[in-house]
Structure prediction request, 953 residues.
Amino acid sequence: MAKKRKKRKSLILTAAACLVLLLLLAAAAYELLLPAGPVFSERENRMLAERPAFSWKAFFDGSFADGLEKYLADRFPGRMGFIDFTRQLRQVGSLATWEDYARVAKSDVADMVVREDLAEELPMVTPRPTRPPAPTVMSVPTLTSAPDPLDIPTSTDNPAPTPVPTPTPRPTKAPANANDFPEELRVELIDGTEKRRSYAYMRYVVQRQCSLFDAYASLLPEDGIFALTIVPNASRANVLLTLHDPKGMVSEVEPFIHAMTADNVAAFSTADILSAPMTAGEYVYFRSDMHWTPYGAYLVVSRMLAEAGEMLPPYDAFPKTHEYPFLGTLYRDSLNKQMEANPDTLDILTPLHPVRVRRYTTPKKYNEVPFIEENASPRDRYTVYLGGSKGNWTVVERTDVSEEEIQKTCLVISDSYGLCTMPFFAQAYDRAILYDSRYYEKYAMGAVSDLIESWGVQDIYMILGDYHLSDETFCMLCSRQY
Amino acid sequence: MVFSSLTFLCLFLPVVVGLHSLVKNGTARNAILLAASLLFYAWGEPVWIVAMLFATAVNYVCARIIVGAKTEGGRKLALAVGILISLAALIYFKYAAFLVNNFCALAGLSFRMAQPKLPIGISFYTFQIITYTVDVYRGKAPLQRNPLWLLLYVSLFPQLIAGPIVRYMDVAAAIEDRNVTAKGMGEGFFRFSLGLGKKVLLANLCGEVLETLPAAADMSFFSGWLAAALFLLQLYFDFSGYSEMAIGLGRMLGFWFLENFDAPLVSKSVTEFWRRWHMSLGTFFREYVYIPLGGNRVSKGRWILNMAVVWGLTGIWHGANWNFLLWGLYWGFFMVLERTVLEGVLARTPSFVKHIVTVILAVVGFVFFRNEFFPEIAQQLRAMFAPWRVPLSDPYAVYAVKNDPLLLLASVICCLPLRKTVEAWFKRRREAGRRNAFRPYVKALLALGITALSVMFLVGQSFNPFLYFRF
Prediction:
């Protein structure tokens, strides 16, 4: 009896082994035998791997083996549960604070590596020959009133916000020589003792992009402006807050663009505009997300609009429909406990006047979408404005005036940073159009230059995440769609 | 194919172990195992199977000639041909570009040879097939008359890609006839799961943390030491995990492979470290290089030369680059030092000091292994030993330690000889007349838990959010 019990016990481990092997085989069989069509992962925003088709060629070149491994991993039963569990498990016992993460976080979208192979491919954009050349002398916009320094826009977290400066007349640019600028155009963080290089653009890459900006500017009426700003990623900008003695950010790239482009092109340094508020502790960047806050966007857009002679009401004057707790992409990368305990706050603002939003799929076909996506999931709350920047051509128009009365139209060329600028552009203009080259379908909409003409665009604002200036995806697409 | 892939775990392993266990006929078992091993090797890179077949065929013929030769000269010639042809393939694939390019650089020639693609596992199976021919020559191993079974020895999938280096004489009997038992299956799976856990839960994660640390040129004092220690841990868990999986798979299939690692980081001397680290490689070089050179039964000068040759070869076996040669000679230097000038000093030194010094030497030694180029080695050593010339700390090292304290703690604990200690504890209880009723349950739970967690992490690694187009 005792012998039998001993033998039975010795087989427990064998039974466990058989059980595991059978379960693993069952998981693979489930994946391989059941029909599996294409599956899109919302969480990862990509198509999951599909079952590889067997062929001797694929077997011999190794692509079948690679494809099968990817397929087994991507379609493993309970995969997302495993992913969540293992990511949470790794955070057990973590002592890292938000500041620790901010100092080491990489750009969560793309490293600032200039891919010279792609940079070489960047086209020099030629302005449309039918359009008049950009004027060499710009008319100075007349301001109806200077902003009152006491009308400082405030957010709930900003007891002492930075004043929006008075717009200054735009001078005629002196001819510039690209060689007067360094080979690398740097963006640097300053901490009182030393400069810390954050990243750099190659001069010749930015020079090529300037031809695109000039081409846009050439489409505008005589008093129209093309205003550009480059927004440092929060994961880089937040490093400033963790420095021992933060002084601010400086950037060499905007002065270069400003000098190398036509007179009606103005480049604004977001680094310059936001560094003082940021070091003063104002809430201009999210801590848990790569983007700026609506308040940060407001400060920069105010400056850009001032260039076109437009003044915005104070930040607090904008109706705030919601105030969401928000944990964005940087949190999702790190699962940092301190971020989780202190989520960001996302203000959801609307223009002071009523608007409607139309998302065009062809020049004549559109869908109505809400200005604020009420049902945005907590994960995608940054995209509550207009439901995100997806779409060919998204038009926000005042509804308290008739279509015939619409006078001022601007185009906002932007990536995701442009989303929370829309309440401000829609306030300043009767019609504000959002165009994101990553989602634009030229075969359906035609050339952007034609649309700029047919929609009577007077001013263009380009708002780019810093990683989009030097890589091909955004600016090269803009060039092709021009 | 590698053991820590889902293709292996979910398809290959259950099917092969299942078929092998169900079939009772020895020839059929060998046929299944041979077919599985060839598929395992061919998976993803089928073309290199030709190199393995060639090496096996050459040594099969040479071994037959050795046994059938009438004269000692003929036997020696066959032995030399077998060894040289096997080594020629290894030298061509692994070392030719290194040798040619260094020669051309020294001679001022502009010619550069492109590095041929390295057949997987060539360093392991070349040494294995050499042990067969040499042991047949020495009369220590029987001649294998069936070329397919010799090919099975060379291609045996548990130890094919990353060892241990199994001598033919250690598995010759099992190839002819082996006993596959339910107990062996359970015990083997237990060892396999421990190895899988070391690889997936410790080595891979240590590697992930290591990647977040700065490059050698930007290292602080803290990150220099942390990177060196993490690399040693990653390499140890990776290699010992793979060996443990191989040993476990062997048990499941009825083979007994010798241990390859025995908690080397508890060693109290460099000599002891190498008795515990990659033991099968050490055995190979001792049996087939060091002793034929005369071992230590020669003059002191000759012995130092022998040590230099053996450790130089040990280093260069790991890779065709100067840093590996330097790494091997580093160990040889300290081993000679220990056995000569430090012999008396070591005898009087407290154990814990010897242990700390050995661990430090190991951590520093693997800086040579990790960094391919001398400037990188110099930069990391400067960060480690000249703290006045670099910052004391940096945010990356601080974040790594603060974000993953449990991983680091678990890694240090798992360097201890835990399995042996627990087995010894159970043994003591048994000898004291106490029942170990819970032992199989603990082992089963451990095996289940570690395997499940490892599979979850393997699946979790496929999480690849494409954020670029997110917004």
